Amino acid sequence: MEPKAPSPDTVPDGTQPHPVRSTSGAYGPTLSGQGRTHPDGVDRATRRRVIAASFIGNFVEWFDYAVYGYLATTIAVVFFPESDRQVALLSTFALFAISFLIRPIGGFFWGHLGDRVGRRVALSWSILLMSLATFCIALIPGYATIGFWAPVLLLIMRVVQGFSASGEYAGASAFLVEYAPPHRRGIYAAIVPASTATGLLMGSLIAALLYGVLSPDQLSDWGWRIPFLLAAPMGLIGRYIRTKLEDTPVFKEMAAEDEALKAPAGDLFKKYWKVLILASGAVLLNAVGFYLLLSYMPTYLTEVVKLSPTLSNLSTTVALLTYIGFILLTGLLSDRLGRKKVLISASVLFMLLTVPLFMVLDTGIFILILCVQVALGALLTLNDGTLPSFLAEQFPTRVRYSGFAVCFNLSNALFGGTAPFMATFLIAASGSDLAPAWYLVTAALVSLIAVALAKETFRKPLEHD
């Protein structure tokens, strides 16, 4: 049977970006011969369901993960013996960082599962595991009750959280990119960091509410457990939504040819190791910037700038609101200008503006702090809104989930999860409140070099092999 005629859905330059598969398995032409992409024919209703499911599922996963950071100061009181406050904070953030060390292993596991069995299966199980671990944290007695075992149990649950989260961001990004029209992959993939920020926003709102209405004793006694208890029902809802979706057209096509089973994630390190190294470097700004500016910042404002916890969380909440809007605009921008141009601009701007903006934070003036957080969040969206589509496009279909998951989680394990700890440590070691800013500048420089050496991928078909 002859191939069907190409779809009228074309990229802005007038070329036909994706092949059309006939019932006999024939394919239409591809752009520049760069591998096969998913067949045309995904209706708008299906794409809307994919967007909604990806948003809700990712929101649930990252709300669960984020509340730990926003309640770090209270958790330090509950799970560690009374000692120097900075030591307790360092211990709390050390647990935050340790949970990230499992993420490269988790990334390999979930990526391997997603590339062999399906994106939907991996995403459905990861959200269930995350929600269970988060719910269990709410049930752990404090140090005053069970002593040494309190932080040990907390560590175990944090490791499970880290293992689960390692498959979420990469899987949701690959899922959306593979469903998206070729000329709109940037805005589709930007849904992932937008939903992540929405999860953080909800965590920030709940933390601000708890700090505002409860006394310190009430908060440390039982109040901090409330957001962790919400994990169970939200996780079940997220899993239910995901199980109602079909897997991506490009994965089903590959599985029908039995190619998925012949593509273990181990191929990633044999054939695509150069791409993996550059992609890991490109993630560095996201890893440090995201956790420094959107997770650690309330602690920095409270402990270093001496802003009240209520104002610190309020400021971060406003910054997250603007971040969500900016990040979707960045996704559109990357579809027009290209991934590399936007990512390089983000790195350059961070290198130039981070230290001056942190100097303004140290003034302690709330309105100025608010403006700085909004500005830093806007700069971060230039990176975060473009990175998901950039990473997904760097790897072919057969190792896309694995490649994204491994590089993303490796950088986050080494530099993202350790960002709050490093910020606290660098301030204590150097005596300078600007130490976190210089750390962020260094991350931006590394990302700049990696992105500059990587290939441009926007408006090109997704490679199959």
Automatic annotation (TrEMBL):
It is a multi-pass membrane protein. It comes from the Bacteria. SUPFAM superfamilies: MFS general substrate transporter. It is found in: Cell membrane. The chain crosses the membrane at residues 62-81, 87-110, 122-140, 186-210, 222-241, 272-294, 314-333, 342-359, 365-382, 403-429, 435-454. PROSITE patterns: MFS, SUGAR_TRANSPORT_1. Residues 1-41 are annotated as: Disordered. Belongs to the major facilitator superfamily. Metabolite:H+ Symporter (MHS) family (TC 2.A.1.6) family. This is MHS family MFS transporter. It comes from Brevibacterium gallinarum.
